[in-house]
Amino acid sequence: MTYPLSLVNILTVIAASACLWAAVPEAQGKPQKLWRIAVPPFLATLVALVSLAGSVTSFALDATWAATALVGTVVGMIRGRSIGVQTDQVWGVVRPQPALDGAVIAVGVVAAALLDAVAGFLPPGTLPRQAHISAASSLFAGYLAGRAWSMGTRAARSPHVDLEHP
Q1: For 36-40, 44-48, 61-65, 159-163, which range has the lowest pLDDT when averaged over its residues?
Q2: Among candidates 99, 78, 55, which has minimal Cα distance to 142?
Q3: Is a pLDDT exceeding 90 seen at residue 79?
Q4: What is the total count of domains within the chain?
Q5: Residue 80 resides in a domain
Q6: Is 2 inside a domain boundary?
Q7: Which residues, listed in sequence order, are joined to residue 35 by a DSSP beta bridge?
Q8: Residue 164 lies in a domain
């Protein structure tokens, strides 16, 4: 017997919600430890991988999933280069320029996780299909990962600025 909602769906929605929660301080421009920039992409990647694991796999789906992740990563890296970052090199604290795009993409990750969870209640053949959801979540995860990579590498090389310790 299969159930329309599983523990994996619930944990995926929790991980997506944690991704949104971790992206909010960055959107507000609050100082945070450098490693905290990597938390939203990590959780978004977890959601994307679980979504991919739950969908029917085929070469076309794997190629679509990889292509959307690559496109998201490139766009995220370009966006991350335009976000200003101040770094306190002594404490390892960064303060990004306030930008809402990370939080908006995190809302997309939550929406993808919720759609993936609710898709079990829909009749077979009804959109959204898990393949589309996993492709969207990989796009979001790639965007957040590319953005965080670009911001993190720039923050590590930026000159010292005295910031308050979080």
Answers
A1: 159-163
A2: 78
A3: yes
A4: 1
A5: yes
A6: no
A7: none
A8: no
Domain containing 23 equals: 7-157
Tokens 């306030």, located at residue? 98
Distance separating the N- and C-terminal Cα atoms of the chain: 49
Instruction: Tell me the average pLDDT across 102-118.
Output: 93
What is the percentage of the chain residues whose pLDDT exceeds 90? 49
Task: Tell me the residue length of the chain.
Answer: 166
What SS3 state is found at 96? strand
Query: Can you give the pTM of this predicted structure?
Result: 0.89
In angstroms, rounded to a whole number, what is the distance separating the alpha carbons of residues 68 and 46? 15
Q: With CA atoms as reference, report the closest residue to 38 among 63, 52, 19, 15.
A: 19
Cα separation of 52 and 58, whole Å? Answer: 11
Tokens of residue 135, six digits: 């492709």
Q: Would you say residue 62 lies in a domain?
A: yes
How far apart are alpha carbons 107 and 142 in whole angstroms?
14
